[in-house]
Structure formats: C-alpha cells, structure tokens
Design goal:
There is one protein chain. The protein is mainly alpha-helical and about 300 residues long. It has a single domain, classed as Orthogonal Bundle (ABC transporter involved in vitamin B12 uptake, BtuC). Helices cover about 75% and strands about 0% of the residues. It has eleven helices and two strands. A two-stranded antiparallel sheet has the order 1-2. The radius of gyration is 19 Å and the shape is globular.
Length: about 300
C-alpha cells in the first residue's frame, strides 16, 4: 500500500507540473485558437533564469527563503517578457494568415529558443539547487512524499482557483471570454483584443516559469532540452482534458501524471510514454473534444 501511495504522490507531482504548463496552452488556444509550441521553451527559460539568480544571491549570502522568492519572481518576470515578445514578433503579424503559418512560426520559435539557450549556456545538464524550503511537519511523511512535492501540488491548486476566479469575476476575465467567443464582436463593444491577447500570453508564460522553478528545484538539474519534452506532455494533458478548458487542463495533467507514474512503477519506465499517449489516443477516439471539452459546430 505504501508503494502505491508513493506512486500516487509521484504522479500527482508530475501531473501538477503538466497542469501548470497546460494552463498556458489552453488559455492561448481558447483566446486565439493557436497552439504555442514555444511554450515549453518559456518553461525552460524560467528555470535557467531562476538558476542564474539563485547562484548570484547565494554568493551574496541570502537565506533560502529569500533566494526562492527572488529567483521565482525573476523567472516569472523574465519569462513573461519573453511570452509577450514572442506573441508580438512571431504570432501577431500572422493573426489573419492561414492557420498553418502561425503553427510553423511557433515551431520555428521553439527551435530558435532551444538553440539560443544552448549557445548561451551549455548542452550539459546543470545542477539546480533545492530552493523549496523544507516543512517541519513533512518529516514523518518523507517516506511517502516530500516538501517539494507538496509545494508543487499546492501551487497548482491555488493557481487554478485564482485563475478561474479571475476569468469568471474580473473585468479582464470577461474581456478574455468575449474575445474567445467572438473576436470581432468584442472589438465592436470596445474590448482591446491586442491587450487581452498579450495579457493571456503573459499569464501563461508566468505559470510556465513557476512550473520550471518548482520542478527544477525538485529534480535538481536542468538543460536546454527540458522544455521540449515537458511542453509535449503538457500539450497532451491540455488535449486530454479538453483544450480551452482550465479545469480540463488540470484534470488532464493529473491523469497523465498518474498514468506515467503507475506505468513506471508497475510495468517499466520504458513504457511510460507508451501508456500516456495510448491513453490520449483512446480519449480522442471516444471523446474527441477531451474529457471536459465541449463539442461545437463551425461554419465553413
């Protein structure tokens, strides 16, 4: 039973990270129906930013909590700036182009950012400090879970609640929903859709940066390629839950994380991706819109 709980908590940790990144995918798709394949690289850049800031602060004698807060804040700000810039450079000029054009632009931006970090840093794995502080009450549960895993799950839960409240009850959230429903009509009633789209990219990039800092701190190493793998998994989670749905992105992340964790624990680590993508195929066959997605007709 203890082994099962360990796998469950491990899957919950994986799923929480997938969910944080999947939220960025699903928000952008919900607003402009674009798959931002450079989103995983924003996650990677956030982790590298936190590593650089944490290294500098450690040299200057800052305590653990200050390093964690300041490194995370720097990662969020820097990654948000990247997300904002990418939208302006790679996506905005192609907003009215055929759908294939922004898709190719997104893939190109992903490759560019990978190689940019490769040249600026190194191709080797770099050690990442354990920034997440240890909780005293978790010592008696350390054989099942860790403070880092608890922090990752709580962060995802809080982010989902806050994001849901923002979209449902704030003026910006209403503008986002209006833009997602009918962009032209939203413009006619005074919504600045360029501003709303930029805010969406900023929020999604900030969430990816938070995920990058948390998982890098938990695993203890990073390299330039981590964004591609996690980005693909997070996109899978978003599709699994129903892309465009915030609760769906979180649910899809958890299901994908548990699938990988139990496949690794009870079958083999070689088959974790096989089980994950097989689950996605089955969901798409029997429920193409995803678990919480809504099917709808489209005029042609």
């Amino acid at each position: 039973m203890e082994y099962f709980v360990q796998l469950f908590m491990g899957g919950l940790t994986r799923g929480s990270i997938y969910a944080l990144i999947a939220l960025g995918y699903t928000m952008v798709y919900g607003i402009i129906e674009l798959i931002n394949f450079a989103h995983g690289e924003i996650y990677m850049i956030g982790a590298f930013t936190a590593l650089i800031i944490a290294s500098v602060l450690t040299l200057h004698g800052f305590n653990e909590i200050a390093i964690f807060v300041l490194a995370s804040l720097a990662a969020v700000i820097y990654s948000s700036a990247y997300g904002f810039t990418i939208e302006k450079i790679a996506y905005k000029p192609l907003r009215h182009a055929p759908r294939l054009s922004p898709l190719i632009s997104a893939i190109g931006m992903s490759i560019f950012l990978q190689n940019y970090v490769l040249l600026a840093q190194t191709s080797d794995f770099l050690p990442f400090p354990g920034l997440i502080p240890e909780f005293g009450f978790m010592k008696k549960y350390e054989h099942i879970s860790s403070s880092a895993e608890l922090m990752i799950f709580l962060t995802t839960a809080v982010v989902m609640v806050i994001l849901t409240c923002v979209i449902k009850f704030t003026k910006i959230g209403k503008a986002m929903r209006a833009t997602a429903q009918d962009r032209k009509m939203a413009m006619l009633v005074g919504v600045d859709i360029n501003r709303i789209i930029s805010i969406t990219f900023i929020i999604g990039s900030a969430l990816a940066a938070v995920g990058g800092v948390l998982i890098a701190s938990h695993i203890g190493q990073i390299n330039f390629y981590i964004g591609f793998i996690v980005g693909i998994k997070a996109f899978t989670a978003a599709v699994l839950g129903g892309i465009g749905s915030i609760p769906g992105a979180v649910l899809g992340g958890f299901i994908l994380g548990w699938t990988e964790s139990f496949a690794t624990g009870y079958v083999s680590s070689d088959y974790e991706d096989v089980f994950a993508f097989a689950l996605l195929v089955l969901i798409l066959i029997f429920r193409p819109a995803g678990l919480l997605g809504k099917s709808g007709s489209q005029k042609v």
